[in-house]
Amino acid sequence: MKKTDKKQHAIESRERILQAAIMLFSRHGFAETGMRELVAEADVNLSMVNYFFGSKKGLLKEILDAFFSGYLAIARDTLVTDGDLQVKLERFIGNAVRYFDANREALVIAISELPHDDPEILEYKAGWARQMVEIINHEICLPLAAESGRAIPPTCFAPMLTTIMASRFLFAPVMEKVEAGSSTTVTMGDYTKTIVRIFLQGI
Amino acid sequence: MKKTDKKQHAIESRERILQAAIMLFSRHGFAETGMRELVAEADVNLSMVNYFFGSKKGLLKEILDAFFSGYLAIARDTLVTDGDLQVKLERFIGNAVRYFDANREALVIAISELPHDDPEILEYKAGWARQMVEIINHEICLPLAAESGRAIPPTCFAPMLTTIMASRFLFAPVMEKVEAGSSTTVTMGDYTKTIVRIFLQGI
DNA sequence: ACGGGAGTTAAACGAACGTTTGATATCTAG
DNA sequence: CTAGATATCAAACGTTCGTTTAACTCCCGT
C-alpha cells in the first residue's frame, strides 16, 4: 500500500464514519445509536470514532457544525445583498430548500437535537443561531418593518421560516406511512414555490 | 391511610411519573433520560414505571397518545364545520397555538421523536397523522383548490402548518440563549396573529 | 376476619453502553 | 536507516442501562 493510499484510506475511514453517523443519527436518533452499530455500518474499528472525533458527542458536533455553517453561508449569500425584499426572500427560500434537500439527514439531526438542553451542545447551537438571527433581522425584519410597519422580531421569524422549509423532511417518514410515495408527489420546485407564495401573498 | 387515599396515592404516583417524564423527555430527549433519573424526579420506586406503563417505551407512547389525540380533537372541533375557509383556518391556528403553549413539553417530545423510524412508534404516529391529514384535506386543501385553483396536498400542507406553529417552542431553548427573554417578547396572541396573517395574506 | 389483588420496595439481572489500553503495522521525516 | 508519528486492531475497562424478581404492606370484597 502506497503512502498516499494509506493516508487516503484514513481520510476515507473518517469520511465513512461521518456518513454512517449522519444516516444512523437521523434515522434512530443520536442517543439511540450505539457505537458498535455505527462502526459496523462504517466498516471501521470501534476505537476509530474516539480516535478521529474524540468522543461520540464530538462526532455529533462536527455534523451539526458542517450543517449550520452551510445554512448560514446560504443566508449570507442570498440575503446580504442589495435588492427587493421579496426577491431576496425568494432567493433565500429556493437555495435553503435545495440545501435542506441535499442534506436532509443532517437537517433532521439538527432539528431533533435542537430543543434538548445539553449545555455543551446548546451553547454553540446558540452561537450559530445568533449569526443567523442577525442576518434575518438586518435583511428581512428591519426592511419589512420599514416598508410595511409590521414589526416581527427575528428570534420569532427565523424559526418560522426554518421550520416551514424543514417540515417536509421532518415528516417524511410518517407521511410515507400515511400515503406511500407522498414524499415525492410534490416536486422540490413546487414545494419551494408554495413556501414562497405563502410568505409573499398567503395561501 | 383510607382506601380512597391509597387509590388516590397510586393515581398520583402514575401521574407524577407522567409529569416527570414529560419534563425530562422534552429537556434531555427520550433516549438520554434514564429510568433512575426519571423515578428520582417523580419520587417513586424504580419498578413503578414498568408496573404502570409496561416499559419505558410504553410511557412514551402514552405521552404521545395524549398529545396527538388532543391536537386531533382541536382540528375536528375547529375545522369540521360550516363556514368560510379563512375563518376556519384562523380558529384552528388560534386553538392549536394555545394547545401547543399549554402542552409545549409534549409538543417538543412529539416533534423530536417524529423523524425516527422505530417501527413500533412510527406505525402508530402514522395512525394519528392519517386522521389529521384527512381533516386537513377535506376542510382546507379541497376547499382551497375549489375556490382558488391551487392544489396543495394535505401530506405537504399539514406538516407546514404544524411546524410553523411549533417553531417558537422548538427553538425556545436556543433563542433564549441568543437573546434572554426573547421567548416572551412576543405574546402568544401576536404569535398567533402573525401566523394567521402569513397564511392569509403573506408576511 | 381473612384471602386476594393492588401498590410499593430493595436487590439483582444480563446486556449494552462509551471509552481506554497496549500491541501492531505502515508511512514520513531527518 | 532509523526514530517517530499515524492508523488500525482486539480486548477489556467500569458504568449504566431497562427490566425482573420476590417479598411485603395495605385495603377491599365476601
Can you walk me through this structure?
- 2 copies of one chain form a homodimer.
- By secondary structure, chain A is an all-alpha fold.
- Chain A has 2 domains: 54 residues, Orthogonal Bundle (Arc Repressor Mutant, subunit A), CATH 1.10.10; 141 residues, Orthogonal Bundle (Tetracycline Repressor, domain 2).
- Helix content of chain A is 81%, strand content 0%.
- Chain A is built from 10 helices and no strands.
- Chain A is globular, with a radius of gyration of 19 Å.
- The first copy, chain A, starts with a helix and ends with a helix.
- The relative contact order of chain A is 0.09.
- The N terminus of chain A is likely disordered.
- At the A-B interface, helix 1, helix 6, helix 7, helix 8 and helix 9 of A face helix 1, helix 6, helix 7, helix 8 and helix 9 of B.
- The structure holds a DNA duplex (30 and 30 nucleotides).
Write the layout of secondary structure elements.
2 copies of one chain form a homodimer.
Chain A (H helix, E strand, L loop, with lengths): L2 H26 L6 H8 L5 H6 L2 H24 L5 H18 L1 H10 L5 H30 L5 H25 L3 H4 L2 H14 L2
Helix pairs in contact in A: 1-2, 1-6, 4-5, 4-6, 4-7, 5-8, 5-10, 6-8, 7-8
The structure holds a DNA duplex (30 and 30 nucleotides).
